[in-house]
Amino acid sequence: MSFANVVLYAGLLVLMVYKRAQGRPIGTTKQLFLLPAIITVLGFEDLSHAKLGTIDIAVGVAGCGLSLLLGALRGTQDKLSRRDGTPWVQWGAVSVAIFAVNIVAKLALDVAGVALGGSTSGVTASLLLAVGLMLVGEAVVVWARLQAGTLPSANGAPSTSGARGPRSAGPRWPGDRSHFERS
Question: What is the dihedral of CA 143, 145, 149, 151, to 10 degrees?
């Protein structure tokens, strides 16, 4: 991985954390899973071109598994609310901390892998895949939480009214029953 790639990935991660801490509308199920799927596919593609040894594979699998689990944990801590009838997700301090722990743990695994005889290119090739799986884990849990039902409104009060205005002809994600409710 070149220095330019490291700078690019670091910049993208900082931008992602900033945007998610600000909060964003969830949109449809497709929109919820699109970015995690793209990053995971790009990460797998990056990994598939690397020459991997046994240690590289073991470290990569451990790092990806850890990222998936920590992403799911972060999904349980994300703040979900409804703003103007649209579901929103926002990272709080705990979500940012879990993200930071995930990155530090992945880097520590990579350093340990190199110390055990793995190649630098082999252990770092799984970084993008790990980030993608981290986002997949989060998206799955957020999606499951949306399926569970009631979201608080932006002011913290429970809201089951999903009035989204005249353009709301049907559900925005599977399990969304707000289009059946009347104001």
Answer: -100
pTM of the model: 0.78
Give me 20's structure tokens: 């998610």
Per DSSP (E only), the strands in 3-125 are: 24-25, 79-83, 86-90
- Give pLDDT tens digits for 54-88: 999 999 899 999 999 999 999 999 999 988 888 99
Could you give the 3-state DSSP secondary structure of residue 174? coil
Contacts 24+ apart (CB under 8 A), 66-69: 66/102, 66/105, 66/106, 66/109, 66/130, 67/102, 67/106, 67/130, 67/131, 67/133, 67/134, 67/137, 68/133, 68/134, 68/136, 68/137, 69/137
Phi-psi region of 175 (alpha: psi -120 to 50; beta: other; left: phi over 0): left
Decide: 78 and 90 in contact? Cβ < 8 Å: yes
80 phi, psi to nearest 5 deg: -105, 135
Residue pair 17/96 in contact (Cβ under 8 Å)? The answer is yes
